[in-house]
Design a protein that fits this description.
Blueprint lengths: L7 H10 L5 E2 L3 H4 L11 E3 L4 H14 L3 E4 L18 E4 L6 E5 L4 E5 L4 H10 L2 E2 L12 H6 L7 H4 L6 E7 L5 E4 L12 H5 L8 E8 L1 E2 L3 E9 L2 H15 L3 E8 H10 L13 E9 L5 H15 L4 E4 L3 H21 L6 E3 L5 H15 L3 E7 L4 E7 L13 H14 L15 H7 L2 H14 L13
Parallel strand pairs: 2-4, 3-4
Antiparallel strand pairs: 1-2, 5-6, 6-10, 7-11, 8-9, 8-10, 12-14, 12-15, 13-14, 16-18, 17-18
Length: about 475
């Protein structure tokens, strides 16, 4: 389906129905993405209400103008920029930043799509609740984009992805119709679940303008520990031991490798590894209890049991909030050090938990067969999501090895696929992974996705080229 570019006449029509505040300068903030892989183009429009979004979408549908929804701009697969094709409207949700309602008795909160994640967390804390979605970009990522990409983060093990933390949505559909699905119901079996269809669709089926979010009780006692383990297999066994002892109180269970700390030392980011000797593999774990005390004792009990079972050799248990924050700051600084080193190829993978040790071993062998590359494997072990990133030898640049990028990526993704895993665990498809989706997706799934896109967006105006070619 052919699209038309934005013209001066089209912008003039938009000005008839929108205030001057809705028109933004097309700056780098709207036209670039964090990894610098794409630079987009477009006329930036920032509506302040669902009705204003609907006005823009209806105008674009009538003129066959593409729309690129823009939330916090933190996505890592190019879903927020459109580098090719006719000039689109870049639809920023930044002005839709109100929290419409908080319902403590229902453990629910209604937020517009432009509300920053950290502000939702603060609003929940103000009534003694927790909004548990947590990730490194929470100071700039916005609710609409987090839901559109079904974001994960560090607490998926206990609380689930963004999808599991949402009850209802308000969405502007491709013809400008507003679907008011902002339900606060926990049970509603009235036909197809459009909420689940929109979450994770990356703005290609509709534009999320508001959401009803699920709040959780705040743990009253929290403990965080960094434990050294002998191998990924031992880390997996430690997770099983932790679940047997602590059940659903485990909020996070992260696998870290020494390479992450090597990169931090090499780039001057962060502090040295707090465990003497810099072990090859470590686990960063956190638990939260409803009682006022007991978490630190429970973590110490797990540590002692792990030592006795030979699953851990050393460790650090935070004894204050400052120490706990320092451990998580360390985890959040690993991606920054990675960025400064410069990955030849980054992989956001997930495999069944029991397949993780085999995946790490097979992937390392495959990469070593290609070249003498450095590997930083880390991530959310508790839910099977590992960031398996490949870097040039020390002293060399990623640019010098760029011709091997596709070969490296294919080697890793082929192993993931053979193990029944996913090449995109939490970042989505965007534009970066469209070819991978076509290569690895089940043909029936891909056909169904295309049929859904055709049904809900027959003119192809919503985020053209994202998710589906």
């Amino acid at each position: 389906m052919m699209l038309n570019p934005v013209t001066e006449a089209f912008v003039a029509k938009l000005r008839e129905g929108l205030p001057e505040a809705a028109f933004r300068e097309a700056s780098d903030a709207y036209l670039t993405e964090p990894r610098g892989k794409y630079r987009g183009k477009g006329v930036v429009i920032a509506p302040a209400s669902a009705e204003e979004v609907a006005f823009v979408v209806k105008a674009c549908a009538e003129a066959r103008v593409g729309i690129v929804p823009h939330s916090g701009g933190t996505g890592l697969v190019g879903g927020q920029v459109m580098p090719e094709g006719p000039t689109p409207v870049v639809l920023s949700l930044a002005r839709m930043n109100r929290i419409r309602g908080i319902y403590p008795a229902e453990n629910a909160l209604v937020a517009e799509a432009g509300v920053i994640l950290a502000d939702v967390q603060s609003a929940a804390a103000s009534i003694g609740r927790l909004f548990p979605l947590s990730l490194a970009s929470e100071g700039s990522a916005r609710i609409g984009g987090l839901l559109a990409t079904n974001a994960g983060g560090v607490n998926v093990l206990r609380y689930g992805n963004a999808r599991a933390q949402c009850l209802g949505l308000e969405v502007v559909l491709a013809d400008g119709t507003i679907w008011n699905g902002l339900t606060r119901l926990r049970k509603d079996n009235t036909g197809y679940d459009l909420r689940d269809l929109m979450i994770g669709s990356e703005g290609s089926l509709g534009i999320i303008t508001a959401a009803t979010l699920i709040l959780a009780p705040r743990p009253r006692s929290v403990a965080t520990a960094l434990l050294s383990v002998g191998s990924p297999d031992d880390a997996l066994k430690l997770l099983t031991l932790a679940q047997e002892r602590l059940g659903q109180t485990i909020s996070a269970f992260e696998l870290l490798s020494h390479m992450g700390f090597d990169f931090m030392a090499e780039t001057g980011v962060g502090a040295p590894c707090p465990i003497a000797g810099g072990p090859e593999w470590m686990v960063l774990a956190e638990i939260g209890l409803s009682a006022e005390t007991g978490a630190e004792e429970a973590m110490m009990g797990l540590f002692e049991a792990a030592l006795e079972a030979g699953l851990a050799q050393d460790g650090v248990i935070a004894s204050s909030e400052a120490q706990r924050a320092a451990l998580w700051k360390m985890r959040e600084e690993i991606p920054e050090a990675n960025r400064r080193i410069g990955a030849i190829s980054s992989h956001d993978t997930s495999v069944p938990l029991s397949a993780i040790p085999g995946f790490i071993a097979r992937a390392r062998a495959a990469i070593e067969a290609i070249g003498p590359y450095r590997i930083n494997c880390f991530g959310h072990l508790g839910d099977g999501n590992l960031h398996y990133n490949v870097y040039p030898p020390k002293g060399e640049t990623k640019a010098a090895h760029a011709p091997r990028q596709r070969e490296i990526q294919t080697a890793v993704h082929d192993i993931v696929h053979a193990l029944g895993g996913s090449f995109s665990a939490e970042h989505g498809i965007g534009r970066l992974k469209v070819e991978d989706l076509e290569r690895y997706a089940d043909p029936a799934k891909l056909a169904a996705m295309r049929a859904i896109k055709q049904a809900l967006d027959p003119k192809g105006i919503l985020n053209p080229g994202a998710v589906l070619r």
